[in-house]
Amino acid sequence: MSGEEMDKEDRLRDPEYFSGSSSSDDDDIEEHLRLLGHSDDIDGYLASRILHLDMNQPRPAQLLDEVSFEGIVRYITSGKARKIITMVGAGISTSAGIPDFRTPDSGLYARIAEEYPDVGNPTDLFSMNYFRMNPKPFFKLAKDLLKSQSFRPTPCHYFIKLLESKGLLLRHYTQNIDTLERKAGVNSDLLVEAHGSFASSTCLSCGLRYDQAWMEKKVHEMDVVTCERPDCHGIVKPDIVFFGESLPERFSGLVFQDFPFCDLLIIMGTSLQVQPFASLVNQVPETTPRLLINMEVVGNEGGNDFILRLMGRGGMDFSSERRYRDVAEIGSCDAGCSKLAEALGWKEELISLMGGS
Q1: Which fold has domain 106-150+196-240?
Q2: Is 195 annotated as catalytic?
Q3: I need a labelling partner for 263 at 20 to 30 A (CA). Which of 23, 83, 94, 130 fits?
């Protein structure tokens, strides 16, 4: 490479080369494109440009007086958080004793796989194709999940109910199918069960619907639960979203109604890996504070990436110097909610909701 070409490469890597006022002139733009076309380091050039754009991008207004757990507490007590959305996953039900049936090494899945060797992995249990071929493994799973007297809501579930009782809960979005929010008393109008739940079931043949109490009874009486209509006897499937099925219309309808007005987003007990649920963190206004209560930091992939943020996929930013709204409280969901309730002066109310325990 000649000395002149090396000078051009160096100029391409220099963000300031493109930041002058003359860069808007047509002649300069053509020169920039010409140089870029001959560059051997287009990736390096793009990286330098993105960094330059990001550093010069004005940061949205910071609503927290401090980007910390204490800052979130003061934000709530100030009365600025009046439309809180909670997003949760399986982690909020762990302490309730809900068995882990999603991972290959879980005891529940292992027992099912031992009895039904053709169940290749946990996802088969929620595959419509497999369910139609052999529904017995799913109903064996359902039998364990529907021990209604065994599983009680956790402090985290009751904290969500506490937000509702104070008129602060705009909506609760859950990936869970265990209905523990309902058992904690959360109003069904405020619930969005993104992946469905055992709260209702539907006959796949005639469409007749059944409630949870009916399914809880039948799943312990039959290997495969079937419709009670004398002229039907079709398989009755809980209204859980299986692979190959669409998410409930209620989910897609309320997302666009709720998230633009959210003034505090609380994310708990989820890996934020399953779409489209995971992308909901990006649907709130860019000034809205976001609190993660989880055993580990999640949702931060690309959180400080300018291009991903432009595409609405930037995730959360817990660590960069430019962070202004994202706070992570690492630990169990129960511990995080109890800590938040105590800091807000709500500890006794939470204990009361839990039945004094």
Answers
A1: SIR2/SIRT2 'Small Domain' (3.30.1600)
A2: yes
A3: 94
